[in-house]
Amino acid sequence: MKEVWVMTNIGDLAKEISRTLSAYTDEVKEGIEKAADIVATDGVAQLKSRGPYREGDYRRGWAKKKTKDGYVVYNKTNYQLTHLLEHGHATRNGGRVAGRPHIRPVEEDMIREFERMIEKVVRG
């Protein structure tokens, strides 16, 4: 097989490399944005199914919100209860209610899944 060498201007080569890297960067940004949306949606679904209450406003209140930095998963109806249910709280009678960790395990799953999806996007 015969090799063909084409002489090109070094300026054109630099522009071509820059254009290719820019296209790759845009593709990675779009992939990360899509991965963040998917992970946030899955996180909301997991919180609705894993939570201490199987029905009611607390379960239905889980939602995601897009911000300038990414996505936030939060409880829009009973946000005051999240800390109390996750970590436990004192009762009126001086007793204590044990916490039911349901947010942290979902958060850890979301982090692992997001990292896995980002690696997949970057590798192509």
Describe the protein:
Helix content is 60%, strand content 13%. The model has no long low-confidence stretch (mean pLDDT 89). It has helices spanning 10-50, 57-60, 79-87, 103-123; strands at 62-67, 70-75, 89-90, 96-97. α1 (10-50) runs antiparallel to α4. With 124 residues, the protein is of the alpha+beta class. It is rod-shaped and about 85 Å long.
Oligomer: single chain
Task: Report the average pLDDT across residues.
Answer: 89
Q: Please tell me what the overall shape is.
A: rod-shaped
Identify low-pLDDT runs.
Answer: none
Radius of gyration: 24 Å
Write the layout of secondary structure elements.
Blueprint: H1 10-50, H2 57-60, E1 62-67, E2 70-75, H3 79-87, E3 89-90, E4 96-97, H4 103-123
Antiparallel strand pairs: 1-2, 3-4
